[in-house]
Structures are given as structure tokens and as C-alpha cells.
Amino acid sequence: MKIFFILLFSGSALFLKSQNKDSIQLRKIYDYYLTQSKTYSNLEFLTTKIGGRLSGSPQADQAVAWAMKAMYAAGADTVIFQPCMVAHWVRGKREKCSISSSKLKLEKELKCIALGSSVATPPGGIKAKVIEVKSFEELEKLGEKEIKGKIVFYNVFFNQAHIRPGTAYGETVKYRGKGASYAAKYGALASIVRSMSSVADDEPHTGNMNYDTTLSKNKIAAIAISYLGADLLSESLKQDKDLTVMVTTDCVTYTNVLSYNVIGQINGSEKKNEYLTAGGHLDSWDNGQGAHDDGAGVVQCMEMLAMFKALGIKPKHSIRAVAFMNEENGLAGGTAYGKFAEENKEKHLAALETDAGGYTPRGFGIDTLKGLYNTVSKWGKLFEPYLIEKITKGGGGADLIGIAKLGVPCMGFEPDNQRYFDIHHTAQDTFDKINKRELNLGAAAIGGLFYLLDQYYQR
Amino acid sequence: MKIFFILLFSGSALFLKSQNKDSIQLRKIYDYYLTQSKTYSNLEFLTTKIGGRLSGSPQADQAVAWAMKAMYAAGADTVIFQPCMVAHWVRGKREKCSISSSKLKLEKELKCIALGSSVATPPGGIKAKVIEVKSFEELEKLGEKEIKGKIVFYNVFFNQAHIRPGTAYGETVKYRGKGASYAAKYGALASIVRSMSSVADDEPHTGNMNYDTTLSKNKIAAIAISYLGADLLSESLKQDKDLTVMVTTDCVTYTNVLSYNVIGQINGSEKKNEYLTAGGHLDSWDNGQGAHDDGAGVVQCMEMLAMFKALGIKPKHSIRAVAFMNEENGLAGGTAYGKFAEENKEKHLAALETDAGGYTPRGFGIDTLKGLYNTVSKWGKLFEPYLIEKITKGGGGADLIGIAKLGVPCMGFEPDNQRYFDIHHTAQDTFDKINKRELNLGAAAIGGLFYLLDQYYQR
Q: Does B201 contact chain A (CB < 8 Å)?
């Protein structure tokens, strides 16, 4: 019994000692981010000097070149360009949507935006009656008889009652994603979707759509209208179901082009060939500046390299900050990251994505695979002083699609993103929406987590 | 043993049943706030139609009249005006601060704002050399020899390394509060304080100061300059310690005037003479719109009345939403609330203040007095789905000063206020800084807590 207690005691003492050492180190890490980091100024450059940077655009190329320099400036030992072929879709000059009703004496243009991957309408636009639906089931019931020759209007509300706005987004994004092909299946001429917006304003939200050829081989134009525009259209339809809407888009999809993931790496001092990855996506929609989505994630991960250097910490494993390309419309970067890892037989310990906005951190979602959750959840106490309370099971993210397939345990950074879907994929996702403290607290949480993973996570 | 287990089992079953009933009710409460409440539109009216409303101002009177109507509209059975005599300080037309240095060829006006309760300078202003200090200790060491005839400049940084920005505010606000009297003690002519700001911008932050006659009977003018202005002044002083600064203020302090707390009450169905109070303060600084500070708190508490009515819940105890007057410069309302409670021998079960901004809720600080913390902390599980994670010991707030003295256990609403001290007491505390979801989530957390308190809290 005595020996047992002595062992227990010395075990606890060791545990306490390491927790104490770690809490001191975490405090230094937070000090760095909150008082010295370049997270905010890096994001300012990316968003205001380069701006929106959709895959295949000149701005995306500029962002790749900038990311390389910024990774080196942050202290990367090496910067790797990882090639991937990305979609090259261009919005074009015109995107118009107007209601016309002689009965209501209404001629009104609605703010609209073409969805990513949409085709163009004929040059003169498409003018047709509109049929409003609230679900695919309703669409199916109406069938070709009611839909053929019309424009389908998916007027599905973003349910504000959800505590996590991402839940409401998850419920409605399918109408953006495959609404056009579903409508085309029944002979519709174009598709309009109510923006996935958590605020009642006049900003249309873009985002990618896909033509699902199993539903229809016919590709029809797909646009989004704003929350208020959708309200107006719906109200007008109640009073005049024969009103017409004119939709015009000029979009062009070119051949895929070469682009890159940009990987900034600090070489591990003990296990150089074992990797810990933290990434966000470098591409963004073209209508805003891609500040919260996901310039924030890119600069947060990049700053991790600078933190290790500034504090003189030599990580045991190789630490990678990854600026993924093409998250928004193709996931070519995320797919390539997995492919290269597989081909080169890289050993990836774990990978994190931050792509939910640069807001105050609340926690992390952590894979239960390979003991990762069990390890990380023990650090809850260490993170408590930093108001990180939710270390939950599950996690990952779109950019980790390739690496997750290889069985690498994944993690997701979870900020307080109540404001995210106000500006998500709109012209309002701009640098002025970023709060410096919130951005840096998020970066610090990620940096702290990676410090601990490097120290303690074993597989 | 059998009986013990049966009792244990039936006890747990009852507990589970009530938790289940409560979780259903909480969900209804959140649904109400997130989809039907008038919190946001009420705040829009208060902030944009009435605007800044310092005690004693016509706007404060308008706010009192509005609060009465809004409390009735929210469903109050009765609205009580609770009189209190409040400070009547008026900023006046001019507040100027300019640097002059022939050595640096510098003539520059700095954005500045008089501190609440400050006296006016002589009409021509005060022009003098400046002595910069970082603490009262430094001031004391310099003494009359160095300070007499000069303007004291408290250049104390808001420490960004703190995880809770309120900690940094707490460290620096003393220079705003009694810096002038401390400086006057050594013969200073005026006092300038660096704004308690968490952002590097050009907005000066006001806030109250007090003349401490135990330090000096001489009342000197007190102003704040912005973060960037303070940087400029400090840099300039390094290059020319003989530069002069001119400070001009026109402030007037009139005789105290009559104003009111506005109390909206739903009468308890079982214990009408036992009260549960939730309050924010109706007055605000004059330079902004008092949106986060504390229009948000007022409308959150007010909406609780509407929630009880809308959901058909008849509270057992009397529920009070209180719009306190004069939190910013005197606490006359909070003091009066306690005085009336004492005089009328009111039985107050518990009281909450919300005055930390209308941001995403994180938790509550709860008094350990009279079993309140023990009761509330058991509800942690119920609040988990609503991302309320921190139910901690301690709590209360400035407006509860009177009621706390009577031994009433107090609570404080704790939002994620990383952005608060960017705009606190500035012209930027305006309605456009409010996010509707965040505001309503806070209101819902308070409403949910009060539903549970009414059901279960006993003393």
C-alpha cells in the first residue's frame, strides 16, 4: 500500500509539474499572440491589398505568391508549393434579377448574385413566371406540369431558432448546391435561391453549386437573392402568381488551371518526418474580401510558425501551416494534400482546420480516432483560463477531406460564430468586420493546442 | 436496501422528469427570443430615436417616458417610477486639446473628450507644459517640484495580454477616476488620461471621474485623449519635453435633478410580495447612443416580461425588469432601489444586472449567498445546449449596490465582451454595433435563468 501511494503521489507530482510547466508556456504563447503577433496586419494585407481571390483568378495567384513570402517571414524553414488543378469560373459582368408585374404595377430590380459554377443565361436573359417552393419534396409533387418553362424560387428560411447558426446553414445549403439541377429535372429555365442569411438585409450570398447530371443533363442558371429580396418576391407572388422575373447571368467556366496549396513548415527537431498540420483556405469568393472566410484561418495558422520562432520553441515534429487552395469551389487543394501525403508516405499525426471565422474561440472539435480526443480532452483545465470550454468529440473540415481519408485524426477550430452567416459569402465579408483581439485569441488557442500536441501526442 | 434503492430511483426519476420539463420550457423560451422578440427593435428605438441619454438630460427624460410605455407594451402588470436625485452635468460646447512645439514644428489638435463631472477650464483654456506618468507612485515621486504648474498626462496602457479585457479596464480606470485630484494635490493645472481602449484608434473614451477632496480641494479639468493621440503626445514629449498643451473644456455641473428608475413588474401569482429583479441601466454617456452600454441590458430585461406573457407562463413571484437611472455618474438609481426595498420591507429573492454589452452569452456570475450559487450551478446541464458554460461564483453589478447591501444575493450576466472596450464610452457605441442574434441569445439566457429561479429558488 505504501509503495502504491508513493507511486501515486510521485505520479501526480509529475503530472502537476508538467501541467504547471505547460500553463506557464501557454501564458507565454497567449502573451505573444495578444501583444506581438502579425496576424491582424497580415490579414489586412491579404484582404485589402489583394482582396477577393477565387480559384483561378489573378488575385488567387497573387495570394499564393504573398503566402509564400509571408510564410517565410513568419519563420518557415521551408515553403512548399503543392500543385492542384482548380476550377476557373468567372462571374462575368452582368447579374440581374428583376420582377415585373402589371397587376401590381411593379417593376423592380432585386439585388442578386450568380452562384459559383452557374452557367450564363442567353445574352437577353431568361424571362418567365416563377414557382416558389419550400422543399425538394414540394418541387417533386408539383412536377413537370407546374414547373416546366418557369423559374424555380427556393424560398427556404434560415431557421433563427437554432443555437448554432451553422445548423440552419446546413439545412438550407442543399437548395443552393443542387437546386438548379433538381429544378431542371422538371423543365425549369432558371433557379433562384433565398440567401442563407442570418440577417434581414439586402445582401445576396453566393456560394458554390453543382450540376448533378444524374438529376438533369440540362444546366440552367442559378442565382441567389437577398433575404429582403426573397421576402419581396414571395409577397409579390402571393398577390400576382403570374408575375414574371427576368434573370441574366454572364458566367463562364474555363478549363481548370494550375494553382497551389502553400505550406509553411518548421522542421521537427526530433521527428522531422512526422507532421502536425493546421490550415485554412487561401481562396475566397470574389464578391467580398474573404476576411472571415477564410483569410482569418490562413493568418492564424501562419502565425503559429512565428510564435514557435519568437518563443524559441523547437518543435519535435514538423509543424505545417497550410494555406489550402480551392476550398470554395472544388476542394482541389484539400484533395491534393491527401494525395501527396499518400504518395510520399508522409506520417501525419493530426490535422486541424480553421474555417468558421476569426471570432472569439469557444473550443475544438476533436476526432476520437487514434486516441486524439482522449489526449486533448485532458488539456481542458489548461485552456480554462483562456475561456476555451468546449473540447468536444468530432471535428475536421472540408480542407481535410484528403488527409482524413488516410485515417489521420482531424480537428476543427470552433469560434463563437453567431455573426458569421450575416456576412458569409457576401460583399460584406471584409477586413473591417475583424476584431483584432478575437482573431488573436483564436490564433493563440490554435498555437497553444499545437504546442501541446507536439509535446505530448503520441501514436 | 431495496427501499433505499426504490427511493433513490424514484428520486432520480422525479429529478429527470423535472429536468426534462425544464429543458422543453427552455427550448420554448429560446424559440421565443430568437424568432419573435422585440429586443432588437426596442433597442433600435432607444438608441437611434432617443440616442445618448446622460442623467439630467432631456434625452434621459425621454428615455424614462419611453421605458414606461415599452414596459407596458412588453406586458408589465404595473410600471413603477422610483424617484432619485441625479447628477446634472453638461459637457458644454468646446472640448479641445492641442499640442504645440516650436522645436518639433508641431501644432496639432488631438481628439479629446471631457470626463464626466469635470469642471470647465477658464474660458481661454489652460496652456502648460506636460508631465507624463505611468502610475500614481511615479506621480508621488515627482512631487510638487516637478508637477506644479503643469498638465499631468496619465499614459497607462490598456494591457492587451489580459484574456478578459475588463481586467485591463479595472487596472487603468483609477487614473480616469481620481487622476485629476491626485494631480491637483501636487499643483497640476489639468489632467489628461489615455483612453481605456482595447483598439488602436482615434476615438477618445469618456467616463466618470470624481473630485476627491481628501486629496485636493482644487478641482482641475480632466479630459481623455484617444489611443493614437496618447501615442503621439508621448512620442512628442520624448523629443521635446518642453512642448505645451492647451486644454479647453466648457463643462457645467448644475444642481441635482429628479429622475427615475423605471420598473416593469409582472405580479407573482403565488408570492406577489417576493421579487426577482433583472436590470440594466437606462442612462448612457452623451457622446454615443448607449447601445451596448447599456441599452442592450435594458431591452434584454424588458423582454423578459414579454416572454412570460407570450408563453403564458404565470410566474409565482413578482418579476421585475428594472431600467436603472444614473449608473454612469452617480449610481443614484441603484442606491434608490435598495433604499425603497428597505423602507418598504420588500422581500427580494435575487437580483441580476446585465451591463457588459449585448454580446454572445458565456455565463453568469452568481452570489454564493443564501444558496443561490448552489441552486443555479445545478442548472448547468440545462444551459449546455445554449452554449452557456460558465456559471461561476461571484456576481452582481454597480446598479445592484443598494440591494446587495441588504443581503440580497446578486448575479451578473457575462457575455463574450472582447469587443466591448473598443467602443465603451465612445461615439462608436451605436446601434449598428449590435448583432441581433447575440443580443437575443443574451436575453434568452437571462429569461431562461429567471424562469428557473421563479420555479425552484427558495430561501
A: no
